[in-house]
């Protein structure tokens, strides 16, 4: 056991207990982990279907018994020598290289478990398996035969490469289906409105004119060549001598015949109006996109449901020998090859496509059951070469064909859709430039005035009111609101007191009933009454002189009493103004905010508008994403409602593929619509929705998503 522990590579992750049991208790298979998996490896998927499938298949392979015991010469395994055989096998540098490549092909990242196609090809080529023959020469071995351990390691490497390529193809099909919906919606808009149909006819008119001109040119060229071959050289010389006008007449005649022939060939264009013809063309392209979308979805469903179906408890695997994982890998590679070759064909319907794919897999000449002259050691090399052929030829040809179909039947190019406004802008550019040059000074003044207006508005309606509010909060004397000066009322009141007191002293009979001179107490009493607004002595004199105004004016005190009352009126007015002034001072902060409010509202409105124009529409984007999620749920509901289940109450391949596309788009919206904790639960429900456990369970999962996450999907 010391030799075994010394030579077995750590990268194998072989358990020591397995080696001991194998060498001491007899022959038993060696595992990459301690035990077989007891869970079912179905192709039930979560929202990111292909990534989940790749991770689970890769983890399943890591638990499989990939190493067989090495038999002795007489075919009977020898327990005592088996441990040394394992050590000798794994001491070879080639096996060490293969194990490192297997580790590179593993899914070490949960977020990005897929390797790109070029990386898979590089690892597969560097392993040397595709170039291997029946006999592999190794420096560490004297014999020329490949050891069973090396053969099993090669099978493990090819299987992991198949899983990675399977995920790449699923990604490719998924990325091709989703953009097709945009083209279908575009043709819906064109067909849904006569105005849009007319606009489409105008947009594509140069292309139709070019195609018609090219057809006429080609037909005329063929007619001219045919006519020149029928004439002898002498006739050509005579025709040249007839003159240039006759030649031009013949040329015009040929062109007119070609145009007439094209007119009869395209009788539909003459019967239909240009808009009706464009609508028919749009309807034809839309039907092609729908058919391409359905066939691609069917191919995606076939690969998801039938590809790499191996697992101890998998129902589909039990129909075959689910222990023969090598046969499953071979059939899966053939299935990927057939799907890529047939999925871009629009000449067949869905049923014929599926039958053709499955028939092609069963009759595939490269399967081991059809290769009589191949040995077990050749199968990894044959399979590796086929994987390289898929990556080098089949997959690029498929991508080219799909791009061509999407381009021919999708919405027109940007140049075709916008050539008319571009041409109008180009033709009017000189006029616009001339206007700009002639009105340069006015335009500059407009910009200067606009800048000055913005600046004055900002300082006068935002900055200064803000400064006043700050001064009011600090009780700054310069910020107080006042209608009248602070000491004005005091001076006028004291003046009124002096006037009334002097009048009372001069005319004591108006101040007292006895008419005697006033003492200090009476004067003080009069001052107190004047402070309260009582000027009775003056009013008595005014009442007496008013009986004879003329005599009162000349000989009495009418004018004096009248002037004192004017002063009294002034004092009363100032008292009222003082009350108003006190009220304004108590609400000074309120008036400051009232003065600031218009400037703040205008500034906020302008800022919000500019933010919306230049890409800050966070709320609108959130609303659009929620609306898109609702439409996706509606599409999923239609898929489940219109689906024709199989005998096992499962979705068909086409419906399953369409469901995966919608779930994939919905998954990408989760992080931007919901909090992290809610998003995790949402992904669990998406897993229930996409798992192939029966249409009823999927319908219940859809209903649960609708009511549980309605708050974020409004």
Features:
714 residues; mainly alpha; disordered N terminus
Folded structure, characterized:
InterPro entries: NCA2-like (IPR013946). Its main location: mitochondrion. It is found in: Mitochondrion membrane. This is ATP synthase regulation protein NCA2. It is a multi-pass membrane protein. This protein is mostly helical. 73% of the residues lie in helices and 0% in strands. It has 32 helices and no strands. It has helices spanning 2-7, 16-24, 49-62, 79-90, 93-105, 117-126, 148-192, 194-203, 205-230, 233-241, 244-265, 267-271, 274-306, 315-319, 325-342, 350-362, 379-409, 414-427, 429-438, 440-473, 488-506, 508-511, 520-531, 536-545, 549-554, 558-586, 588-613, 618-642, 653-668, 670-673, 676-690, 695-708. The two termini are 67 Å apart.
């Amino acid at each position: 056991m010391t030799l075994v522990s010394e030579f077995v590579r750590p990268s194998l992750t072989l358990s020591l207990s397995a080696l001991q049991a194998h060498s001491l208790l007899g022959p038993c298979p060696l595992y990459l982990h301690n035990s077989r998996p007891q869970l079912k490896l179905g192709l039930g998927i979560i929202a990111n279907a292909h990534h989940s499938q790749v991770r689970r298949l890769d983890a399943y392979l890591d638990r499989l018994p990939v190493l067989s015991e090495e038999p002795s010469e007489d075919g009977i395994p020898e327990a005592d020598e088996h441990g040394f055989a394992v050590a000798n096998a794994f001491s070879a540098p080639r096996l060490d290289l293969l194990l490192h490549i297997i580790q590179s092909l593993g899914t070490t990242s949960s977020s990005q478990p897929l390797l790109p196609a070029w990386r898979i090809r590089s690892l597969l080529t560097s392993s040397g398996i595709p170039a291997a023959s029946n006999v592999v020469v190794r420096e560490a071995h004297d014999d020329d035969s490949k050891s069973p351990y090396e053969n099993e390691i090669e099978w493990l490497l090819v299987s992991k490469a198949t899983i990675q390529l399977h995920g790449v193809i699923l990604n490719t099909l998924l990325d091709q289906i989703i953009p097709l919906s945009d083209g279908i919606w575009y043709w819906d808009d064109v067909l849904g409105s006569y105005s849009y149909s007319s606009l489409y006819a105008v947009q594509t008119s140069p292309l139709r004119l070019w195609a018609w001109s090219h057809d006429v040119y080609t037909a005329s060229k063929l007619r001219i060549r045919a006519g020149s071959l029928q004439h002898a050289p002498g006739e050509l010389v005579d025709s040249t001598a007839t003159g240039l006008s006759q030649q031009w007449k013949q040329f015009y005649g040929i062109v007119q015949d070609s145009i007439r022939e094209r007119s009869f060939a395209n009788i539909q264009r003459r019967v239909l109006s240009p808009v009706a013809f464009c609508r028919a063309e749009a309807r034809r392209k839309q039907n092609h996109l729908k058919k391409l979308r359905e066939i691609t979805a069917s191919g995606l469903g076939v690969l998801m449901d039938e590809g790499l179906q191996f697992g101890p408890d998998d129902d589909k695997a039990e129909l075959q020998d689910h222990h023969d994982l090598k046969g499953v890998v071979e059939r899966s590679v053939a299935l990927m090859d057939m799907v890529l070759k047939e999925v871009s064909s629009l000449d067949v319907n869905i049923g014929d496509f599926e039958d053709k794919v499955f028939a092609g897999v069963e009759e595939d000449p490269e399967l081991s059951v059809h290769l009589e002259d191949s040995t077990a050691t050749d199968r990894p090399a044959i399979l590796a070469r086929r994987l390289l052929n898929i990556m080098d030829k089949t997959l690029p040809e498929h991508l080219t064909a799909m791009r061509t179909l999407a381009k021919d039947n999708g919405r027109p190019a940007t140049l075709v859709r916008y050539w008319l406004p571009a041409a109008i802008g180009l033709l009017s550019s000189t006029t616009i430039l001339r206007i700009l040059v002639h009105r340069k000074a006015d335009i500059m003044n407009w910009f200067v005035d606009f800048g000055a207006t913005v600046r004055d508005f900002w300082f006068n309606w935002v900055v200064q009111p803000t400064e006043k509010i700050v001064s009011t909060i600090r009780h700054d004397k310069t910020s107080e609101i006042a209608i009248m000066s602070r000491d004005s009322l005091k001076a006028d009141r004291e003046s009124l007191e002096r006037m009334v007191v002097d009048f009372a002293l001069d005319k004591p009979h108006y101040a007292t009933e006895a008419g005697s001179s006033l003492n200090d107490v009476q004067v003080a009493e009069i001052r107190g009454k004047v402070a309260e607004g009582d000027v009775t002595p003056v009013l008595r004199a005014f009442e007496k002189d008013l009986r004879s105004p003329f005599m009162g004016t000349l000989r009495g005190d009418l004018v004096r009493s009248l002037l004192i009352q004017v002063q009294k009126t002034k004092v009363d007015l100032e008292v009222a103004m003082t009350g108003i002034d006190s009220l304004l001072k108590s609400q000074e902060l309120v008036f400051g905010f009232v003065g600031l409010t218009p400037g703040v509202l205008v500034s906020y409105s302008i800022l919000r508008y500019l933010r919306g124009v230049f890409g800050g529409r966070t709320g609108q984007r959130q609303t659009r994403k929620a609306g898109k999620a609702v439409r996706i749920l509606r599409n999923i509901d239609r898929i489940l409602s219109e689906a024709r289940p199989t005998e096992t109450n499962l979705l068909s391949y086409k419906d399953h593929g369409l469901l995966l596309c919608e779930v994939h788009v919905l998954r990408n919206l989760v992080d931007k619509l919901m909090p992290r904790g809610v998003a995790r639960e949402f992904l669990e429900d998406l897993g229930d929705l996409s798992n192939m456990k029966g249409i009823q369970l999927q319908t219940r999962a859809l209903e649960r998503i609708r009511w549980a996450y309605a708050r974020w999907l409004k």
